[in-house]
C-alpha cells in the first residue's frame, strides 16, 4: 500500500484519551486539529473504548476541556457493540440481552431496538461498569451456560481513576469466562470491527481514512488491520522507547496532534 500524505486523506478517526485530552485537560493542538477538520470539510469521528457514557455525555465532557465535538462525531465501543448486535439479529424476537453496563451501553442498545431482560436473552453483554454485583455475575454465568451468546464492549483489563488503578471490563470478562468456560466476542479496539463500523457511520473508505492513536496495542494495530493510514502520537500510553516491543509500525509517528495540524 502506498503511504498517503495526511492532506490527501478525506476522513479521520481519532482516539480521545491521550490524543485529544488528558482527563479534563485538552492536549495542545487538539482544538486546532478539530477546527482544521471542520474548516476543510473533513469527515471525522472521535473514538473511545469507554462504554460508560453516551455521546452527549462525552461531548459535554470535551466541551469542558475547551474542545467542540458534536455528539454525532463521537463513536463509542457501546455504539459499535449495538451496531454489531443489530447486524447479528434478523428479527425483533432475537433482540434481547442481559446487560451489565452503564447508560452509554443501555442507551445504545435501546436505540437499535433491543429489549433488556434476564429472561432467556439471546445475548449477555458486558460493558464498563462500577456497579457490578455478585448476583449479576452469577446470573450472567447461568445465562451463558443456558446458551446466551457472550459479548463484551472492550478488552481493557484495568484503567485509572482519581485514586489509582481499578479493574475494567476485561478483568470482569475473565472472571465470567473462568466460571462459564466461554470467552466473549470483544467488539471494541483492537478489533478492527469497531473501525469498520465507524467508517460506515461517516461513509469513509479505508484508502482515504487516517487513524490517530496513542496506543500501539489497540489504536495502531486495529487501524493497520483495517487498512488505514495510522498516526501514533506520543502524548499517551506509548512512548518512543516502547516501539521495539512491537513487530509492526504506524504509518507516521508524531510528538502530538499539534504536529499534524500543519500537514492537513
What's the quick description here?
The chain is an alpha/beta fold and 264 residues long. The protein is built from eight helices and 15 strands. A six-stranded parallel beta sheet has the order 5-4-1-13-14-15.
Describe this structure in words.
- With about 260 residues, the protein is of the alpha/beta class.
- It has a domain at about 80-185: HAD superfamily/HAD-like (Rossmann fold).
- It is built from 8 helices and 15 strands.
- A 6-stranded parallel β-sheet has the order 5-4-1-13-14-15. Strands 7-6-8-9-12 form a 5-stranded parallel β-sheet, sandwiched between helices. It has a two-stranded antiparallel ribbon with strand order 2-3.
- Helix 3 packs across helix 7 (about 190-200).
Q: So what's the CATH class of the domain at 78-186?
A: Alpha Beta
The portion of residues forming beta strands comes to 15-25%
Q: CATH superfamily of the domain at 78-186, called what?
A: HAD superfamily/HAD-like
Give the beta-strand count.
15
Shape: globular
Distance between the termini: 20 Å
Amino acid at each position: 500500500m502506498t503511504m498517503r500524505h495526511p492532506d490527501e486523506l478525506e476522513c479521520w478517526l481519532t482516539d480521545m484519551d491521550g490524543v485529544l485530552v488528558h482527563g479534563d485537560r485538552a492536549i495542545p493542538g487538539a482544538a486546532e486539529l478539530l477546527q482544521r477538520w471542520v474548516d476543510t470539510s473533513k469527515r471525522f469521528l472521535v473514538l473511545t473504548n469507554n462504554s460508560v457514557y453516551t455521546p452527549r455525555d462525552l461531548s459535554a465532557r470535551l466541551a469542558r476541556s475547551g474542545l467542540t465535538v458534536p455528539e454525532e462525531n463521537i463513536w463509542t465501543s457501546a455504539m459499535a457493540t449495538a451496531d454489531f448486535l443489530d447486524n447479528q439479529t434478523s428479527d425483533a424476537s432475537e433482540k434481547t440481552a442481559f446487560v451489565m453496563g452503564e447508560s452509554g451501553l443501555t442507551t445504545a442498545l435501546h436505540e437499535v431496538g433491543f429489549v433488556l431482560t434476564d429472561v432467556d436473552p439471546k445475548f449477555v453483554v458486558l460493558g464498563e461498569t462500577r456497579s457490578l454485583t455478585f448476583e449479576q455475575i452469577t446470573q450472567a454465568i447461568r445465562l451463558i451456560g443456558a446458551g446466551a451468546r457472550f459479548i463484551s464492549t472492550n478488552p481493557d483489563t484495568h484503567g485509572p481513576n482519581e485514586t489509582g488503578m481499578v479493574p475494567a471490563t476485561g478483568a470482569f470478562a475473565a472472571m465470567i469466562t473462568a466460571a462459564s468456560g466461554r470467552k466473549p466476542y470483544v467488539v471494541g479496539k483492537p478489533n478492527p470491527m469497531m473501525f469498520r463500523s465507524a467508517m460506515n457511520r461517516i461513509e469513509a473508505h479505508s484508502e482515504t481514512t487516517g487513524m490517530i492513536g496513542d496506543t500501539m496495542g489497540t489504536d495502531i494495530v486495529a487501524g493497520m488491520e483495517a487498512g488505514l493510514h495510522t498516526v501514533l502520537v506520543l502524548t499517551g500510553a506509548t512512548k518512543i522507547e516502547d516501539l521495539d516491543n512491537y513487530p509492526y509500525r504506524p504509518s507516521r509517528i508524531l510528538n502530538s496532534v499539534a504536529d499534524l495540524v500543519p500537514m492537513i
